[in-house]
Amino acid sequence: MTGRVSGEVAPVSGAEFTGAELSESVRATIETLPPEIVIVDQDIVASYARDQSRFTDSALPAAVFAPRTTEEVAACMAAAHRNSVTVVPRGAGSGLSGAANAVAECVVLSLHRMTAIREVDAVNRIAVVEPGVVTADLRARVAADGLFYPPDPGSVEFSTIGGNVATNAGGMCCVKYGVTGDFVLGLQVVLADGRIMRTGRRTVKGVAGYDLTHLMVGSEGTLGIITEITVKLLPAPRPAQTLVASFPTLDGAGRTVSEIARSGSIPSMLEILDRTTVQAVDAASGMGIGSDTAALLIVQSDDVDADAVLARVESICRNFDAEDVVLSSDPMESAMLLEARRLALPALERLGDWLLDDVAVPVSRIAELIESIETIAAEHGLTIGVFGHAGDGNLHPTIIYDESDAGSREAAISAFDAITRRALELGGTITGEHGVGRLKARWLTVEHDETSAAVHRAVKTALDPTGILNPGSVLTS
Ligand SMILES: Cc1cc2nc3c(=O)[nH]c(=O)nc-3n(C[C@H](O)[C@H](O)[C@H](O)COP(=O)(O)OP(=O)(O)OC[C@H]3O[C@@H](n4cnc5c(N)ncnc54)[C@H](O)[C@@H]3O)c2cc1C
After folding, report:
1. Residue 469 Cα, ligand 1 centroid: separation in angstroms?
2. pTM of the prediction?
3. Is 129 in the pocket of ligand 1 (CB under 6 A)?
4. Fewest CB within 10 angstroms: 99, 289, 361, 386, which?
5. In 85-157, where does DSSP find H-type helix?
6. Which pLDDT score, from 0 to 100, does residue 476 have?
7. Spacing, Cα 139 to ligand 1 middle (Å)
8. C-alpha closest to that of 184 among 142, 135, 128, 108
9. pLDDT tens per residue across span 6-42
């Protein structure tokens, strides 16, 4: 699924090394590096060409570098800088915006061998990790000490902390806990020319200098290579209680979300599935949620007074005409109630080829966005299912199309653009969590004003003056 070839390293051999397919500059870069961190086997290299996105360009990388230490990363970057070789950093390749896609003549720098959890400090509630650590592994490790690392992207079982930081990944917990960046205290970063920089702190507070840590967060491999991350941890919360409510109208569900926000209750999860998604889930699972359901809300609370929080939420749901409200405090039953959300994307995937979008609007406007998407689907003759994180306004419209049909492909990309435009009109953003990458690079200057775009370019030039880091991602030029 991720295209990652974990741990497989084919050292460059003399025969391969003299291969005509390697340019002089790539050969000169490779020559200075330990052979065991260089992969040129074309079959393996090919598996590093793309992430999980659709409608994004990619190319076969010339080679893959798989360094084991910060010093080796620095050596890779210094050599690439000297020889003007383009470098595309890569975690697990699970991204959905083409940000880790290789470009022609580039080297992919994969962090998959840097998997140490160096420190878990229960008193200061921090962990220090290497970038290739899989997110679920960190969550499990700190849980063993009664601690909690909240960020939980849907890819938690295979994406890496480095990739999560570089995309500022979100997930279902964000409504209460925030995004990955809210848990990043400090970083070690290798700059484009191979210099090693420390940013941030290990302390609860700290305001010394510009916030370079959060300049790197979400920079999608365009400003530096993250080689160590210090994250903040929380005490483990209580097991969550769950509520599921079905609504006969989208408006009722939308107003419920707004009212939950207004009430001051902060659930630890507040997810929505629209009619199309509910029907796809029913068809895939036989769950029987019902064809009359216009929207399903799934709410969790892990507060000490979760009973009271969910009682308030239930009463709000009923005020807005929820048809069916089911509550559970039993962890097994809660997991079953979450099944519809877990199945949302797999169920939509069964309907055809899919293009997953990621936009965010103010929470008060999610019903308007979903209504607009219904109109866009009808206008384009496409099925579009919507699910996502209603509690923070971040939705994932999923466009179903036929990859083998040029007209259907064209309709899909046109609908994708229409949804992105509509999110901006509603006061939202072109991406809530998946990042800009190559998929939405042309939209960045639509969202940001000219001055902001100029500052983006100035920052890029300051940190990567020759433009060797991940060109074409985030910024179009
Ligand atoms: C089924 C599925 C569900 C998903 N659910 C979510 C979700 O709920 N929320 C969410 O936010 N995303 C989600 N994603 C998208 C994706 O998993 C995230 O963007 C994730 O953070 C990418 O991590 P990765 O390790 O795979 O990084 P990659 O895809 O390999 O890289 C992503 C970007 O980070 C850069 N990068 C990677 N490592 C480093 C590093 N060490 N230093 C500098 N740059 C680096 C790359 O150059 C690229 O620009 C999902 C993806 C899938 C396939």
Report:
1. 17
2. 0.95
3. no
4. 289
5. 135-143
6. 84
7. 17
8. 128
9. 334 444 433 344 344 799 999 999 999 999 999 999 9
